[in-house]
Amino acid sequence: MAANILFCAKADLENLVVGDFGCGTGMLGIGSTFIGSAQVIGIDIDKNALDTAWLNSKKLEVLDIDFMLSDMTTLSLSSGT
Predict the structure, then answer these.
(1) In CATH, which superfamily holds the domain spanning 2-69?
(2) First to last CA, the chain
């Protein structure tokens, strides 16, 4: 399922910053790096899910994803500008 989503969205995600909100195991975020996203941020409220996502990214040698423990109602992101 994640592979189908990424295949359909490939042209829309290349060279962009991707926010994987409710990242769970991190598969969509990890896949986004494989199709050329410039940066990926995985966000989840569940620490255990983030631990799993981090382990999955490590196993797949995708070490440039930023994972954040956060509730969407209090999340604050800035563009750095």
Answers:
(1) Vaccinia Virus protein VP39 (3.40.50.150)
(2) 35
CB distance 17 to 38 below 8 Å: yes
Q: Which of 76, 61, 67 is nearest to 26 (CA)?
A: 67
pTM (predicted TM-score): 0.81
Q: What is the dihedral of CA 35, 12, 40, 71, to 10 degrees?
A: -140
Read off the pLDDT of residues 47-72 as tens digits, 9 standing for 90 and up.
999 999 999 999 999 999 999 999 87
Nearest one of 40, 49, 46 to 18, comparing CA atoms: 40
What number of helices (H) and strands (E) belong to the chain? Answer: 3, 3
